[in-house]
Amino acid sequence: MASASVSASLPEALAWLDRHVNVEARAGRVEGLHLDHMRALMDVLGDPHRAYPVIHLTGTNGKGSTARMVTQLLVESGLTVGTYTSPHLQRINERIARNGEPIDDDDLAEVLTDLEHVEATLDEAPSYFELLTAGAYKWFADVAVDVAVVEVGLLGRYDATNIADGIVAVITNVGHDHSDFTGDWRARIAEEKAGIVKPASTLVLGETDEALTPIFYRAGAAEVLERDRDFACEANELAVGGRLLALRTPGHVVDDVFLPLHGAHQGENAACALTAAESFFAQPLDEDVIHRGFGAVTMPGRFEIVRREPLVILDGAHNPEGAAAAAATLREGFTTDGRRVLVVGLLEGRDPNAILEALDVDDSTFVVACQPDSPRATNARVVAEAASALGATVVEEPDVTRAVDRALRLATPDDVVLVTGSLYVIGSARTHLGL
Q1: Torsion of CA 268, 273, 279, 280, to 10 degrees
Q2: Cβ distance 124 to 13 under 8 Å?
Q3: Which of 36, 65, 134, 409 has the fewest C-beta atoms under 10 angstroms from its C-beta?
Q4: What contacts 103, CB < 8 A, 6 or more positions away?
Q5: What does the buried/exposed string (b/e) look like for 268-299 if buried means 16 or more CB atoms within 10 Å of the residue's CB?
Q6: 360: domain range?
Q7: pTM for this structure?
Q8: What is the pLDDT of residues 86-126, one digit of tens each?
Q9: What pLDDT is attached to residue 24?
């Protein structure tokens, strides 16, 4: 479809987008999801998602980091790569990128203006996320990417991104996700995530729970590559500024790969990413490409060190598994003589007790409880009460920026300040800290 001759300004275009139902911000549930609106919308746009191959990623944790790694490996291989991720930390432009660079304001405004014109031809209005996903697919076609790396927004099967047929599907893991956590909830989540697997695709499976493996095989991929069987992170050592890895894929073993991200879990993500990239090419990557690609990876808001004395870390650990990874990373590489001061804000549906326990909150911890800027925010008092029950010293400061300032005032140069929980908290903190 040709672009509209006159585009709105980005604020006007975003105001239009904000008038649509935003499941991501307001509901967070999976009932009633379907792809009917996406099919209708993409049909009017001329099915731009079929103009290039797609690598599709889902998982409870690690899919954003893995998507960035895959992108860098493909860029270093000489391809033009579109990347679609969610949610954003500070600006919506972050979600749609070309070779790692976010879409600029004029292009985003033009894409949204085109969608506004298209919407008038539809029987029902799409949701916020459906429109943004369609816009990403359209822009990738407009700028002629060679491949799109697409992160699922919610589970998989009925996620708007699943309108595309990924030739490589990546499932990083299965953990505490959108579920009521009754009965065999892990199997139900696995079944939804397996919905991104398409016939003739290659599935790169990072989840190692043997009880879930049959679910993923039933999804019907042409080939399934399992972590710790077909690929693995064979060595994963702490290094200055990140990790030093040895990665095994079906094609080879690559030693001494430096990854400038913190946390042993990033080694597992790297193994998935390299296997996905090599599955896309159907051959091993050159080792120089691998070293350059991983060396160029950045991941704002994922154990991101932003200040020292006191050490200030931002990490979007929004579920127990992510919180446990953050605590393990802190223990392994960031021993200090001071206290831990945590700024914690969560969304509804997350278990404050489980997350705080996973963060090793105890009577030596100081917790500043806050609230994300979201309609789904958990009240700061609920977080404060959970922290207090674990013996922590607690203050309530609902506003994220004031909570960060309060933590910085409380901290001595020897302390560690960890801002964690919802990515909405991390985004607000990054903006407040001038990042």
Answers
A1: 170
A2: no
A3: 409
A4: 93, 96, 97, 111, 139
A5: bbbbbbbbbbbbbeeebbeeebbeebbebbeb
A6: 304-432
A7: 0.95
A8: 999 999 999 999 999 999 999 999 999 999 999 999 999 99
A9: 66
Is 3 inside a domain boundary?
A: no
- 63's tokens: 């899919």
Query: How many CB atoms are located within 10 Å of the residue 171 CB?
Result: 28
> Mean pLDDT score of the chain, rounded to an integer?
94
**Identity of residue 92:** I
| Assigned token pair, 123 | 């029987």
Strand bridging mode 416-421 / 340-345: parallel
Residue with tokens 């999801």: 33
Give the CATH number of the domain where residue 376 resides: 3.90.190.20
Residue 22 shares a structural domain with residue 144: yes
CA 322 to mean position of chain CA atoms: 12
Tell me which long-range contacts 220-228 makes (C-beta under 8 A, separation of at least 24): 221/169, 221/197, 223/279, 225/250, 225/275, 225/279, 227/268, 227/271, 227/272
Q: How far apart are CA 272 and CA 276, in angstroms?
A: 6
Contact present, 125 and 16 (Cβ < 8 Å)? no
